[in-house]
Design brief:
This protein is an all-alpha fold. Helix content is 70%, strand content 2%.
Length: 381
């Protein structure tokens, strides 16, 4: 029998027993949230692809999106085009300027929003389980700012290493969390010390990021750095999608593999230890997965705050505390939230485009205050 914790049915802290099976953990709530979020991503993706600096009607933009696919599919069905050619040489089916704009500028932004949403959602879910604090996130724990400082160092002092931004971001995020861990260490760690240490380190790293501007007088570098600090996926291309996709896939797979350990950590250090778990090693290993996910997001989208805080909480409210279901739900909720925020960022002051990090920061800040009031007692944070 497999032990699973289900807050939605039995209340927090209670347990239910379910029969083992490959898909026994999939329930109607999980299917529903996945379906709704998929619809949201598709609808807002179509809205996103319909607007931009290049003037075209909504119908023209949709035709530009689907026409190359239709042409390639027709060639394969009629036998004129081999399947491998249709896949590997798909850009040759893009014909008009409108199709070039849609496929090379607008579509990469949509896909990148999906990847960033997945990464931040996975990272937030892991950190909230590791710290047993639903207010923890890569932003609160200093990982985002650590990755941001590493990226700014690369852009300002080592611009020729720009292709290695995910690596430098991971190193920066990892070092930041290591410092947080050391500050919180007192013969072991506990969730409250981790969060408080994260807030301190995050504030210091934020100041370090701002100090970077004094080391360069190049307008291009400053504008690029500001885009990273505010969190923006404007002007992205397929190169950034290729940069983020492998790390996203890796972190999602590792997170799902570690879902059982996340469930055990929720039971508390003493219980986890009694079940044979080395709590500190497991906690640190799972944190590395969260750091990889957050760093991949920062490397392509800059510091986009609060998505990692909000998404796991929404997913937990819907599907409960079992982390296999929670992580899968978060993988769908994260992209949906990012798509909605990015469409608002594009259209709110059209034709001026806001960085998506401003929208998530405003919404996330309000949500953070809601969580604080819900807790009522500051000592629970």
């Amino acid at each position: 029998m497999q032990t699973q914790r289900d807050q939605s049915e039995d209340g927090p802290g209670s347990f239910s027993f379910q029969s083992p099976g490959l898909f026994a953990w999939v329930d109607t709530k999980l299917v529903s949230v996945a379906s709704v979020c998929t619809v949201v991503v598709v609808v807002f993706g179509l809205i996103q692809v319909s607007f931009g600096a290049y003037s075209m009607t909504i119908l023209e933009s949709w035709e530009s999106l689907f026409h190359p696919i239709q042409t390639a599919a027709t060639g394969v069905v009629t036998g004129r085009v081999p399947v491998d050619t249709a896949v590997l040489e798909f850009p040759t089916f893009i014909e008009s300027n409108a199709e070039l704009v849609v496929w090379n500028i607008r579509l990469p932004r949509i896909i990148l929003a999906v990847l960033v949403g997945m990464n931040l959602a996975v990272s937030g879910a892991i950190f909230q389980a590791v710290t047993r604090n639903e207010m923890a996130s890569p932003f609160v724990l200093g990982v985002n700012n650590g990755a941001g400082v590493a990226i700014l160092l690369t852009l300002v002092f080592f611009p020729t290493l720009a292709d290695w931004l995910p690596i430098s971001a991971s190193i920066g995020g990892g070092l930041a969390f290591l410092v947080v861990y050391l500050i919180a260490w007192n013969g072991g760690t506990n969730p409250v010390r981790l969060v408080l240490a994260g807030v301190i380190v995050s504030a210091i790293l934020g100041s370090v990021s701002n100090a970077m501007f004094f080391f360069t007088d190049q307008v291009g570098v400053i504008q690029n750095a500001l885009a990273w600090l505010t969190g923006s996926i404007t002007g992205t291309d397929w190169g950034q999608v290729q940069m983020a996709a492998p790390w996203t896939l890796l972190s999602v797979i590792l997170a799902l593999v570690g879902s059982r350990q996340l469930n055990i950590l929720l039971l508390g250090e003493e219980t986890a230890s009694s079940l044979g778990m080395n709590v500190e090693i497991t906690r640190f290993a799972l944190s590395v997965i969260a750091i990889i996910a957050a760093s991949a997001s920062v490397a392509v989208g800059g510091i986009i705050g609060f998505v990692g805080l909000i998404v796991p909480h929404i997913a937990r409210t819907i599907v409960g505390n079992d982390h296999k279901r929670l992580l899968v739900a978060a993988i769908f909720v994260g992209p949906a939230l990012m798509m909605v925020a990015d469409v608002i960022a594009r259209l709110l002051l059209n034709p001026v485009q806001l960085p998506v990090g401003i929208i998530t920061g405003i919404v996330g800040g309000i949500y953070f205050l809601y969580l604080m009031r819900k807790k009522r007692k500051l000592g629970e944070i």
